[in-house]
């Protein structure tokens, strides 16, 4: 045969097509209704391994399958804060006890006046003595005089252990004449008490 007379038949493309496998490809529904096909499909063993393989997110957050959730961390206050709270509570209790606790109790009240007659243009020092039980507190009182005058409310603060308080009334006289004077001490708080004292003022006019 002459080489120039040789011709080859062009092979069709169906001779190069591989036979299709007998397995049916898996059908996976995608988003928006599209269908995705992945070859012969994923075997059950591979799917099991993929489901049980921890992801990076699980490892980062510590949420591996079968791992119990972490316990919440309990914050403990330092001891210095606890000591400061105890000291503050003790101070508040002490202040509350001083303010709302038992107050001073009056046991006895007495008033003394000058034993001798006052001379011309003299001042009498009338002293009221209040005896207490020694607890701290405040006395509220006023003075009344026999000439019809009266002082306003007065206050005397007593400290712890102080069992006696001296309250003074200075009464000044002028001009000639004779006057029998009476001074009254009135305790209004913490409990009502009264005491009085008398003295004489005498001033004779020069002849």
Automatic annotation (TrEMBL):
The keyword Repeat does not apply. The keyword Membrane applies. Residues 1-25, 51-71 are annotated as: Disordered. The chain crosses the membrane at residues 81-100. The lineage of its organism: Bacteria, Bacillati, Actinomycetota, Actinomycetes, Kitasatosporales. This is Ig-like domain-containing protein. Keywords: Membrane, Transmembrane, Transmembrane helix. Residues 102-207 form the Ig-like domain.
